[in-house]
Design a protein that fits this description.
Distance between the termini: 88 Å
CATH architecture of the largest domain: Beta Barrel
Number of helices: 5
CATH topology of the largest domain: Elongation Factor Tu (Ef-tu), domain 3
Number of strands: 26
Structural class: alpha+beta
Strand content: 25-35%
CATH superfamily of the largest domain: Efflux pump adaptor protein, beta barrel domain
Length: 420
C-alpha cells in the first residue's frame, strides 16, 4: 500500500510539470524577448569584429631600408680621401681650487657662457669667517699704530723738557739719556706696527682670494656640454673620497676652436702638405661641404696604426658642426679645383627593394606600421643599390627585400612590424 501511494505522488508531481498549451501567455515573457534581442545584436557585432581580425591577420615582420640622396663632391680634385673627427682645441672641465660643498649651480647643458661668468657657488661660511677675522686683525693693528704715535708725541715732549732742564743743570745726564732712548724705542715700535699693518693687509687679501674662490667662474667663453655636479655634492680639484666627491662642475667647449683631426696612412702622407686646401663633409649632413685647409702635420707617427696625425682647420663653420662628429675629408690639389658637382637626381635604395610587375617598377613604402605600393621610375644600378628618380623622397623608408612569400599582402597595405 505504501508503494502504491508513493507512485501516485510521483505521478501527480510529473503532471504538475506539464505545460498547459491552452493557457494564455502572460506579460512576464517580455524581459526574455529583450534579452534574446540584445544577445543577437552582440553576436552580430562580435562576428564583424572577428571577421575583421581574420582579414587583417598578424603583423608581418619586415626589414626596411632608408632612401638616401647622393651628396655633391669636388671635381676630380681629391688626391687623398680620409676620415676623421671634429675636435675642440680649447676644452676644459671647470673645477674649484679647494674642496667644498656645492651650494648653487647656475648653468645647464647647452648654455652659452661668457668669460668670467659665474657658474656655481660653494659653501663659503668658513672662508668668510676667516676673512672677517683677518679684517679685524688689520683694524686692530691700525688702532695700535695710532696709539703708538700718541706715545711718541708724549715721549718727545718729555725729552724736550729734560733737555731744557739739563741746560740749566737742573736734570742729570742719566735723565736726558733715558728720555732720548724712550723716544727712539717708541719710533722703532712704530715702524714695527707699520710693518704689521702690511702683513695684516696681505693676510686679508689672501682670505679675500679664498673667499672669491668659492665662486666658480668660466675660464673662457664657450658652450657647456656637460654638467657634472648638483647642489649639496662635495667637489674637489683632485679625486678624493671615493665616488662621493666630484672633480668638476661642468665641461666648457670653445666652439671657435673646433677643427678636424685625421689619421693619414704613412704611405700617403707625402700627398699632404701645410696650407693644402681641403673639403670636409659631415657624416650627419652628407649633402653639405665645408672648405678647410691643413693647419699642421704632427711630426710623429703611430707605430701601432702606421698613421700620421693631420690637423685641418675649418675656413667656414655653422652651428651644425659639433665636437666628436665623424667627417669625411678630401685633400685637394689646388684651391681652384674646389668646385662642387651637382648631386645626381633621385635617391638610392637597395636593389632587392625594387620589384617588377605588369605595371612596371614599384617599391613598398612603410609608413608607421602599414605598407603601401608605390610605382617608381628607375635610372640604373650603382653596385648593390638602384637609383630611383620619381615618387620617392630622401629619408622615406621602404621594405628592404621584396623576395618574400607575403608580397601580395604587403602591396595591399598589410600591417607590419619592423625588424631592427
Amino acid at each position: 500500500m505504501a508503494s502504491e501511494s508513493e507512485g501516485a505522488d510521483k505521478k501527480a508531481l510529473l503532471n504538475e510539470l506539464k505545460i498547459d498549451r491552452d493557457e494564455p501567455a502572460s506579460d512576464g515573457g517580455k524581459p526574455t524577448k529583450w534579452f534574446v534581442l540584445i544577445a543577437l545584436i552582440g553576436g552580430v557585432v562580435f562576428g564583424l569584429w572577428f571577421l575583421d581580425l581574420l582579414s587583417s591577420g598578424e603583423l608581418l615582420p619586415v626589414k626596411t631600408a632608408v632612401a638616401r640622396a647622393s651628396s655633391s663632391s669636388p671635381v676630380g680634385a681629391s688626391v687623398l680621401d680620409a676620415t676623421g673627427y671634429v675636435v675642440a682645441r680649447r676644452q676644459a672641465t671647470v673645477s674649484s681650487k679647494a674642496t667644498g660643498k656645492v651650494v648653487e649651480v647656475l648653468i645647464e647643458e647647452g648654455v652659452i657662457v661668457a668669460k668670467d661668468q659665474l657658474l656655481a657657488t660653494l659653501d663659503d661660511s668658513i672662508p668668510r669667517a676667516q676673512f672677517e677675522l683677518a679684517e679685524s686683525q688689520l683694524r686692530s693693528a691700525e688702532a695700535s699704530l695710532v696709539e703708538m704715535r700718541v706715545a711718541i708725541k708724549q715721549a718727545q715732549l718729555d725729552l724736550d723738557r729734560t733737555q731744557g732742564l739739563a741746560t740749566r743743570n737742573l736734570a742729570s745726564k742719566a735723565d736726558l739719556d733715558r728720555d732720548s732712548l724712550s723716544v727712539e724705542a717708541l719710533i722703532a715700535r712704530l715702524e714695527r706696527a707699520q710693518k704689521e699693518i702690511v702683513v695684516a693687509e696681505r693676510a686679508m687679501a689672501v682670505q679675500r682670494q679664498v673667499l672669491d674662490d668659492m665662486q666658480i667662474r668660466a675660464p673662457f667663453a664657450g658652450v657647456v656640454i656637460a654638467k657634472a655636479a648638483q647642489p649639496g655634492e662635495m667637489i674637489s680639484p683632485v679625486s678624493a673620497g671615493g665616488g662621493f666627491t666630484r672633480t668638476g662642475i661642468c665641461t666648457i667647449v670653445d666652439m671657435d676652436s673646433l677643427e678636424i683631426e685625421v689619421d693619414v696612412n704613412e704611405s700617403y702622407i707625402n700627398r699632404v702638405y701645410t696650407d693644402q686646401p681641403v673639403q670636409v663633409t659631415l657624416n650627419a649632413y652628407p649633402d653639405d661641404n665645408y672648405p678647410a685647409e691643413v693647419i699642421a702635420i704632427i711630426p710623429a707617427a703611430d707605430r701601432n696604426k702606421a698613421t700620421v696625425r693631420v690637423r685641418v682647420g675649418l675656413l667656414e663653420r655653422d652651428a651644425r658642426v659639433l665636437p666628436d662628429m665623424g667627417v669625411r675629408v678630401a685633400f685637394l690639389d689646388e684651391q681652384a679645383d674646389i668646385e662642387p658637382v651637382e648631386a645626381p637626381a633621385g635617391v638610392l635604395v637597395p636593389s632587392l627593394g625594387v620589384g617588377e610587375d605588369e605595371s612596371g617598377s614599384f617599391v613598398v613604402v612603410v609608413e608607421g606600421d602599414t605598407t603601401a605600393r608605390r610605382s617608381v621610375r628607375v635610372a640604373g644600378e650603382e653596385g648593390d643599390r638602384v637609383r630611383v628618380l620619381t615618387e620617392l623622397a630622401n629619408g622615406e623608408r621602404i621594405v628592404a627585400s621584396l623576395a618574400v612569400e607575403n608580397i601580395d599582402a604587403l602591396k595591399q597595405g598589410a600591417s607590419v612590424s619592423i625588424q631592427r
